[in-house]
Amino acid sequence: MGLTVRWSLAAAEDGVEEKLAAYVAETSHARFSGQAGLRFKTWRMRPGEWFEGCYVFATDEARAEFQETFSATAAEAPGSQIIGSAPVLIEPCEVVAVAEGGEGFLAAPSY
C-alpha cells in the first residue's frame, strides 16, 4: 500500500534542491503530518537527478484515493511548480516491511 511520486531534476534550474528542501520543511511536512489514511511519507532526493515522495498508506483504498486525486492535478502540484515540470512517475507499490532501527524513528521536517 505504497506510492512513489518522482520528478526529474535533470532540466531544473540551479538552486531547485534548496527550494524543495525549504518547501518540505516549511509547508509539506505539516500538510502530511497526521493525514488520515497515511502511515508515513518520506521525501527523497538525488541532487541534479530526482526528487520523490514515498508514501505508505494504511489501506489500499486510501492509497488509491490519494493517487487518483493527486494524479488529476499532478502538473499543478507544488513540487511540479517548484521544479518546473510534472512528475515522471506515479507508481503504486507493495510495502513488504518496515523496520525501526536502534536509533529510533525520527519524524522531522528536515534532516
Key descriptive features of the protein:
111 residues, four-stranded antiparallel beta sheet, 3 helices, 32% helix
Structure write-up:
Helix content is 32%, strand content 26%. The radius of gyration is 14 Å and the shape is globular. The mean pLDDT is 97. Strand 2 and strand 3 (50-57) form a beta hairpin. The chain has helices at 16-32, 60-72, 78-83; strands at 2-8, 38-46, 50-57, 89-93.
Return residue spans where pLDDT drops below 50 for at least 5 consecutive residues. none
Query: Under CATH, the topology is which?
Result: Alpha-Beta Plaits
Query: What fraction of the residues are assigned to beta strands by DSSP?
Result: 25-35%
CATH top level label: Alpha Beta
Say how many strands there are. 4
**Rough shape?**
globular
Annotated CATH architecture: 2-Layer Sandwich
Major β-sheet profile: 4 strands, antiparallel
> Helix count?
3
SSE inventory with pairings:
Layout: E1 2-8, H1 16-32, E2 38-46, E3 50-57, H2 60-72, H3 78-83, E4 89-93
Antiparallel strand pairs: 1-3, 1-4, 2-3
Provide a short characterization of the protein structure.
With 111 residues, the chain is of the alpha+beta class. Helices cover 32% and strands 26% of the residues.
